[in-house]
Description:
single chain; mainly alpha
Amino acid sequence: MRKTKGLGQRIAGKTKQAVGEIVGDQDLHEEGKQQAERGRDEQSKPSELNPLKKLNQLT
């Protein structure tokens, strides 16, 4: 679920970036950039459904 939410945030963020650039709204562009970064961070977090994934990171 987390990866899906992160992907949704990245898509929404990239869309805001593009719209902000097209209409010349720098604030919207920056907001979209930050949202896309949050989505990328969300996707890179380990999944809670796979407890062994954390173990693999330790080794």
